[in-house]
Amino acid sequence: MKTRQLGHLRMSVLAVALAAVTATTVGTAPAAHAAGPVELRLVPLGSGYEAGLQQQVGYWNLNRLSAASLNGDGSEAVAPAAGWDDTARPWAGGGKITKTVGKLVMRNADGASTTDALSACTATVVQSRNKSVVVTAAHCLRINWGLNAPLDLNQVATNVLFIPDFRGENLPRVAPGTDLEQGPAIGPDVAPYGVWAVTRAWWTEGWAAQANHLNNNDMVAMVVDNPADERPIEDVVGGGQSIGFNPARQTPRTNFGYPTVNFKSYSGPNFSSTGAAVINGSPNVNDVPAAQQRIYDGRSLLFSQGPSWINREWWWDTNSDLMKTQLSPGSSGGPWFKDFNQTTGEGVLVGVTSHLAQSSTGGLDAIAEAEGRAPSPYMAGTNFGDQEKAAFETAQSITPGA
């Protein structure tokens, strides 16, 4: 999740803060005024497809996955002493949700050279004609705080990997200075349904024109493939979640994600002089008492549930919704369901986590974003409308590799 700013003066500060939150790479901006969804192609078509697919998957090993997936402060998760509530609690119900939601990890590049700036989001397998579509937030793959012009701060993800039913409890933490070029292969203890390369993706028309949170069409539909399995992902995990568009607003939602970043968690911990996350009995920077503070590590799937209402940006309604939730970055792109059944783990996917909100009425706090903190315990999620439907329809219409 990323928040937005109000003018060009804060862009350089925000670009630094945003880079620590989600995964992106600097690249060439798509057309400023695209008509319809815009494609990001990560694996070439034709004769180079199989080699490109293998390269996408082969880039990742356990060391890289750990660096991308787990928090940067080295701490393991600590539950709030006052207990979990509906704003966040670990998912322990099993069902279809465990197979369809997973960890999405990305590599970054700057267009001229490549780096190992790695990070993670959350994504969901959905029912589609080609049985190969996974949905997340558009900002996980592209963001541009330069507003396309006059500044070009465009960042576009590469080497994107999806792991359904991510078993983070089995992922070893890497020590600082570990060589990420080398590392054990990702096995079924961490990825029981395999590792899936994102080969092509389509973000919304609005996001192509303005890829930041001044735009609320923060959704991308991705096609995934696995060089080690000829079956489409739905056949492997047992089917995708239902997806719906233009749902009724201001109705209950249930959302999921892998919260990871503690410094941008409203009820997160304090930090020691060495940068370690600590719950030391003192209120945190948001004046949240110690009993309500918690530490996230990125290993586990958590969920929130409760009412939703329309997000307001300053004085106008938007096509994104709000919930009170204690999830944090790492949950970006996680599903927002209506009519979620906790027994079966199924619902209708009608949105994805987009960004932290300034307050219970919505909006954005540019100062909080630049300072790297959460301004409120509320979050905005893109509500799937016509643009999101167009991106999904495009993704489900193609044959992977063709």
What does this structure look like?
The protein is α+β, with helices and mostly antiparallel strands and 402 residues long. It has helices at residues 11-19, 49-58, 62-69, 96-100, 205-209, 233-237, 366-371, 386-396, and strands spanning 38-41, 89-90, 101-109, 114-125, 133-136, 142-144, 154-156, 158-164, 196-203, 220-225, 242-243, 253-257, 270-271, 277-278, 302-306, 309-313, 316-324, 335-341, 346-356, 378-383. Strands 2, 11, 12, 15, 16, 17, 18, 19 and 20 form a nine-stranded mixed sheet that branches. The protein has a six-stranded antiparallel barrel with strand order 3-4-5-10-9-8. A two-stranded antiparallel ribbon has the order 6-7. It starts with 10 loop residues before the first helix and ends in a 6-residue tail after the last helix. The model is unreliable at 1-32 (pLDDT under 50).
What's this, in brief?
The chain has 402 residues and is an alpha+beta fold.
Q: Helices and strands: which structural class?
A: alpha+beta
Oligomer: single chain
Cα separation of the termini: 32 Å
Strand tally: 20
SSE arrangement, N to C: HEHHEHEEEEEEEHEHEEEEEEEEEHEH
Characterize the largest beta sheet: strand count, sense, and whether it forms a barrel. Answer: 9 strands, mixed
Binned, the helix content reads 10-25%
Estimated radius of gyration? 19 Å
Cα shape: globular
Residue share in β-strands? 25-35%
Identify low-pLDDT runs. 1-32
Number of helices: 8
Mean pLDDT across residues = 87
